[in-house]
Structures are given as structure tokens and as C-alpha cells.
Amino acid sequence: MVGNLIIGSASHCYQVLEGWGQLPQDIKYGYTHGICVDDEDRVYVHHTGKEAIIVLDKDGRFLTSWGAEFEGGAHGFYLHRDADGVQYLYMTNTKRSILVKTTLTGEVLLEIGTPDRPDLYNADRRYIPTDVCIAPNGDIYVSDGYGQYYIHQYDAKGTYIRSWGGRGSEPGQLIEPHGISVNLRGTEPELYVADRRNHRIQVFTLDGKHKRFVDHDLDLPCNFYFFGDEVYIPDLNSRVTVLDREDRLITHLGEDQQAYKQQGWPNLPKSYFRPDKFSSPHGVCVDSQGNVYVAEWISDGRITKLVRQ
């Protein structure tokens, strides 16, 4: 594990720990999609391999794995402390077209399938959820990023409330709403949607009304991780973007403007990859110490830890 490289800017400087995390010989990553940390800085990796969730401690030691029933469909991943004070995992599965809520040890507590909207979904118009987030009141929001490009809202028990979106580039319309999260940095909660193929963030009220766009310093934004006044965004086109409270650029981490232009990307020859450069960031999270974890969309997985200096 390489640990002598430094990346970032004057205000955000990190030591690179490439190939972070030790897996048992009988466990292999599939495509690594999502990553999150709990209150103990345990790291949860969501990938498309045989057991979809791998849990590591803060030093990268393997703790456990589970989720065989989710093999092949890993995508959106969200850890949230609910009103009962307990942390839960919420995840979307593109293969099974479901959203599930589980305990941190894998007990399934809630499952939501295709919305009962025959005007939107049928045998030819699939629902393919790509991300999920939870509002302060417990409402659940799911982005149909690979299907019909809608956002769906449910209450905490999974009862359907409303939908909005649809394909397009006008305010309120979306093209590949890949990621979704709740912004709590302002005077009222907002929904941030990674409107990926429109190369922008679209901001909504919690009841689905368009508020504004953020359309600078982004290159295929995948999703969001809010940490204090900052937001960390994995740009699929080979970098992690960090924005401040006003969504102004602080820095790009590990930027490689050649990686996504290579033939065969994202599954490039291993000789291409460099510890201090990203190829296809898909998930990001930040632990209590400000260290950043990056999961990349690569067939056999890639996890990098950036240690805040």
C-alpha cells in the first residue's frame, strides 16, 4: 500500500493510501460503486461481487461481509441515523430494481420496488434506481437514474407520496439523475440531484420544486457526500470535486483528464493506473477525521483512502 504521495491543495492536502483495505483470499470485489462510514469510522463498501457489502475498520482490516442476495446489482448507498437514533443502510439495486433498508449487519427492514405508476413504467419502460437519500422528517427519495429519469418520494414506512422529473434539460427535467442527497447547509433542507448527463447539479425543494442549477466545475457528477460546510462529489470523468458552502470550487482531487478518454475505459490495463490519479470515481465518503475514501467503477474494484494532512 503506497503512502508517501501527497495530493490536493493548500487547504485540502491528503496522503494517498492506494489499494486500501485487506480482503480475505476468498473474497473479491466486483465493480465498487458506493462507500460510506458509520459513527465508529467503520467503512462499508457496496460492490457487485458475491457478497455485496464488505465492512472494514478504519485501518482497512476486514471485519465482515454480507448481502449475497444483492449480488450483481450494487449501486446507490446511503447511511443514515433515523429518528430512533439508530444508524441504517439504504441501498438501491439496479439488477432487482429495488430499494432496501437494512441494519448495519444486513437485516432487511424495508423493500420498495417499482413505483405503482403504470403511466411511467411497463414491460418496456423499466425502473432502475441508482441512489437514495433520507430527509430530516424520514421521507425517502429515490432517483431512477438508469430508467425513466424520475425522482420518487416515499414516507419513512415506504408509502408513495409523489414523483417528478422526466427526460429533458429544462428546469425540473433530468437526464440520468444518477445521485441524490439532502443538503442541510442552508436555512432549509434541499434535495441535490446529480443530473449527470446534463453535466450539472439540480437543486429541488423537498416537495420537488426546482430551485436552481449548479453547472460549473463538474464532469459527470455521480453523487454527493456532505461533510460540514463542504460537499464531495465523485466526477466519473476521473476526479473528485470538493465544493464549499456556496458550491464554489475548493479543489479537484486526483484529476486525470486522460483516463476517461482511453480506449476500454473504465477497465484499463493495470499498468495505466497511478496511485495519485483517479480513473472512474463513483462513490466517496469522509470519516470523522476528514479522511476521504473513494470507490471507483472498475470491474475488479478500486478503493483509495486519502488521509487528511
Automatic annotation (TrEMBL):
* Annotated source species: Paenibacillus gyeongsangnamensis
- Name recorded for this polypeptide: NHL repeat-containing protein
- Which windows of the sequence hold NHL repeats? 165-207
Q: Which InterPro entries match?
A: 6-blade_b-propeller_TolB-like (IPR011042), NHL_repeat (IPR001258)
Q: Which UniProt keywords apply?
A: Glycoprotein, Repeat, Signal
Which PROSITE patterns would you find in this protein's record? NHL (PS51125)
| Signal sequence segment | none
**So which domain of life are we looking at?**
Bacteria
